[in-house]
Amino acid sequence: MSEFGVYSEVGKLRKVIVHRPDLELQRLTPANHDSLLFDDVLWVEHAQKEHDEFVARMRERGVEVYYVEKLMAEALDASEAGKQHVIERTVTEMTVGWSIVDKLREFLMHLDPETLTRHLIGGLTGAEARVYADRLGLNTFDPEVTDRISLIAAATDQDYFILPPLPNTLFTRDSSCWIYNGVSLNPMYWPARRLEAVNMALIYKFHPMFVNADFNFWYPPMGDDDRFNVEDFGKASLEGGDVMPIGNKTVLIGMSERSTGQMIEQIAKALFEKEAAERVIACQMTRDRAHMHLDTVFTFLDRDAVTIYPPVVDQIKAYSVRPGKKERDFDVTKEKSFLDAVKDAIGVKNLRVIPTGGNEYQQAREQWDDGNNTVALEPGVVIAYRKNTYTNKAFRNAGIEVIEIDGFELGKGRGGGHCMTCPILRDPV
User: Fold this and answer.
1) Tens-digit pLDDT profile for the chain (429 aa)?
2) What is the CATH number that goes with domain 5-66+167-426?
3) Residue 371 to residues 56, 236, 259, 281, 402: CA-CA distances in angstroms?
4) Whole-number Å distance between alpha carbons of 229 and 233
5) Rounded to the nearest 5°, which phi and psi values hold at 91?
6) Which of 122, 285, 375, 408 places its Cα 20 to 30 Å from the Cα of 265?
7) Is 294 helix (H, G, I), strand (E, B) or coil?
8) Could you say which of 177, 283, 419, 422 is catalytic?
C-alpha cells in the first residue's frame, strides 16, 4: 500500500489530518463571527472536549490521527525554506501594506516554530507582536518607528490583526483534499479561508513525512509555487467538502456555493492527464448557507449506501465529464439524475438511500445540524453527531453502525465528521 492516497469514501480509513480548536476560535466574537463564517461564538473548552472525543473514537478503530498544528510546527522546524515560503505567502504588500512588509517578514522569521504556528492559525494582534518583538530585542513594532513609516500602523490600534485568525481550520476537509494518488491545495471561495491552504502547502511541500513521498499535486502542479496565489485566481474556487473520490476512477465534485465549474475543469484536466480518474461527475447544486458543500447533503455510509437530504439532492443536476478526443476538449454528458449517476459509477444494481430522519421540520433541523455529514471509518461504520436522533435511528435501521459524538459546539461552524477530517490514506472498496 502507498503511504498516501484516498481511493474511496468508505474504504478503511487509515490516516487523517484534523485540527483541535484553539486560539483561532477564542478570537470569535459577536461582532466578527459572521465575517469569519461562523453562525455563533463557541464555548471553546467544550469544543475541545468534543473534538478530543471525536479523535478518540477514530483512534479506537485504528486510524492514525495527525494534527495540523503539529505538522506545521514540524515542517517549520525541518525547513528554513518552508518557513520563508509560508511567511512570504501570508505576509504580502496586499495584506499588511507596502511599507512594513519586509520588517514583518523578518520579525516572523525570528519566532520559534510552535509560536509561529500558533499565530499563523490563531491570528496575531499588534499588541502581541510588540510583546514578542520586545522579548527578542527587536524594535520592529516600536510606535515611534512604525507610526512614522506605516499608514496601517498609524491608523489602527494595537488590537487589530496583523495576521488574521483562521477559525475554519477546524474543517480540514476543505483547504486540501486527496483524490486517489494526489492532493489538491484548494483556492477557497471566501477570503476568510484562503490562508488555510497556504498552511497546508507548508505541510505537503516541506514536512519530512511528505517531502520524499510519491504523490501528485492536482492543484497547483508539483513544484509550481508561484501559481498558488491566494489573492487572485479569477472565478476558479474549490473546497474539499465538494470533492469525493468514490472509486472506479470516478470523482464527484459539487458545483456549490463554494466550488465553481472553472476549478472543476482544472482538477479534471489534471486527473485525466495522469490517468488517475476517467470520470468526474459535476453536481450542480442550489446555493445556500445551509448546504454550502455537497457533503452537507450527501455522504456515503457503506459500499452501496448513502444518506441524502432530499429537498436539495433531488434538485441536483449531474454532468459526467470524461477525457475528450481532442487535446483541449472534454466529453460532457448530462445524466438522467444525480443518484442514477452515482449508482452507475460505483457499479451497484441497487443504491440504498437513507434520507435525513423525521418529518419535514425534523429533517430541516437535522440537515442544518450536519445529520448527513457523516465520515465513514470503514464500510458500514460512520461517526455522527449524537443530537441527530432521527437520522441516526434511520441509519441503524438500515444496518449501519453509528458511533455517536457530541457536536453542540463543533457544529456551530456548520460542519460534521466529514468536514472535520482530511483523509490522507483510505483504502479502495
Assistant:
1) 579 999 999 999 999 999 999 999 999 999 999 888 888 899 999 999 999 999 999 999 999 999 999 999 999 999 999 999 999 999 988 888 888 888 889 999 999 999 999 999 999 988 888 888 888 888 766 665 565 555 666 666 667 888 999 999 999 999 999 999 999 999 999 989 999 999 999 999 999 999 999 999 999 876 555 555 555 567 789 999 999 999 999 999 999 888 999 999 999 999 999 999 999 999 999 877 667 899 999 999 999 999 999 999 999 999 999 998 887 789 999 999 999 999 999 999 999 999 999 999 999 999 999 999 999 999 999 999 999 999 999 999 999 999 999 999 998 888 999 999 999 999 999
2) 3.75.10.10
3) 20, 29, 22, 24, 12
4) 7
5) -105, 105
6) 375
7) helix
8) 419
Residue ranges, CATH 1.10.3930, the chain = 71-163
Give the architecture (CATH level 2) of 71-163.
Answer: Orthogonal Bundle (1.10)
Q: Which three cell numbers stand for residue 319?
A: 454532468
Residue spans in the chain of domains classed CATH 3.75.10.10: 5-66+167-426
Active site residue 419: yes
> What's the grid cell of residue 375?
465520515
Q: What is the pTM of this model?
A: 0.94
> What cell numbers appear for 311 in the block?
429537498
